[in-house]
Each structure stands twice: as C-alpha cells, then as structure tokens.
Write a structure and sequence with these properties.
Length: 126
C-alpha cells in the first residue's frame, strides 16, 4: 500500500514537472520570436536610414518586403511579415519623414512589433 501511494505521489510530481517544462519551452520560443521580430524591424530601419537621399524606398507610401514571409535571419520562407510606411513630406518637421516598420508573426496567437525613425529628404522642405 505504501509503495502504491509513493508511486502516485511521484506520478503527480512528474506530471507537474512535465507541464511546467512545456510552459517554459513555449515562453522561451515566444521570447525568441519577439527578439527576431525586433531585429528584423531594426535591420530594415537601418537599411532605410542608410539609403541615399531621395531613394525610392523612402518616398512617402506603404511598402512590403518582396521576400515575405521572412525567417529570423531575413531570408525568405519564414513566419515573419515585414512592412513599412513612410510618412508624407515634412512630417514631423521640415526636411524629415517618419518611417514606421511593422513586423507581424503568429505562434499560438498573432503578434506585432513596430519601430519608427526619421529619414531626411533630399531637399528642405521636402
């Protein structure tokens, strides 16, 4: 009888351990995806900020990566969708445009991360 009780207690303990392990693994995967999404958004912002003044990629409008969906390293075939919007001329100030990069992905539920920065126009005012 004592052996049966000990086995039952051990079984409950191991089941609890298994559930917590799955939860920790899911949380870690979510953190990895969030980190990758931030890196993809930052990569696009840096790329756009380093383009020549007046380049087509920083003219006002909405844009989508041609390789979408992306992997975490920026190559095609992943689960991340990256888009960016360039504001109208002289927003927020003369000679500037706001670039907003959005990365979306889904695991057990949909997620979105957004970063923004300013780019200069080729003339002041734009």
């Amino acid at each position: 009888m004592e052996a049966l009780a000990a086995t039952a207690v051990l079984g409950v303990g191991l089941a609890g351990f298994a559930v917590s392990t799955v939860s920790i693994t899911r949380t870690q995967k979510g953190a990895d995806s969030t980190s990758a999404a931030h890196a993809l958004a930052q990569q696009k912002l840096e790329q756009l900020r380093s383009t020549p003044l007046g380049a087509a990629q920083v003219l006002p409008g909405n844009y989508t990566d041609t390789a979408n969906p992306l992997k975490a390293d920026g190559t095609a075939g992943g689960s991340f969708l990256r888009t960016w919007t360039v504001s109208a001329n002289n927003a927020p100030a003369l000679g500037l445009r706001t670039v907003t990069v959005t990365v979306t992905w889904a695991d057990s539920r949909p997620h979105t991360t957004t970063l923004a920065a300013y780019v200069r126009c080729s003339t002041i005012p734009c």
